[in-house]
Every structure is written in structure tokens, then in C-alpha cells.
Write a structure and sequence with these properties.
This protein has about 70 residues and is mainly β. Helix content is about 5%, strand content about 45%. It has one domain (about 1-70). The longest helix is centred in the last third of the chain and has 4 residues, at about 50.
């Protein structure tokens, strides 16, 4: 999984797996879900991320059973 924040476009992208996107749906205004040919989620984009997410530049990552990691 890869998380990318682009401050120039104010877009937060979460890429779950590397595969070609065959379809995209706008879940609601500013939130786009991309699907592969198998129908599984490939990635998610959040437009105007600074308005949607409290700190898009800092990521808090939690792995169950492990200590919290701040990136």
C-alpha cells in the first residue's frame, strides 16, 4: 500500500495494489474509488484533501498487534 499527498493539487491518493484501473466511481463529491478488471479496489483519491483530512502531510499508521508508527 502506498499513500501519496500532492500539495500542488491538494490530492491524497491511497494505492492498494499495482494494477490497471478499468473503472472509477465518485463515491461522493471529491472521493474517487478506482477498480481493476476483477472488480477489486485499486486506489482511492481524495480531492481537496486539506479540507477533508486534518493533516494530509502527516500519516499515522497503525498495524494491529504492533506499536504505532508515525511517518
Amino acid at each position: 500500500m502506498k499513500v501519496i499527498y500532492d500539495p500542488e493539487t491538494d490530492t491524497l491518493s491511497i494505492i492498494f495494489r499495482k494494477t490497471k484501473v478499468s473503472e472509477s466511481d465518485e463515491l461522493r463529491e471529491g472521493i474517487i474509488i478506482d477498480y481493476g478488471q476483477d472488480g477489486k479496489i485499486v486506489s482511492m483519491e481524495i480531492l481537496d484533501a486539506s479540507e477533508q483530512v486534518s493533516e494530509p502531510q502527516g500519516i499515522f499508521y497503525e498495524l494491529k498487534g504492533k506499536k504505532d508508527i508515525v511517518v
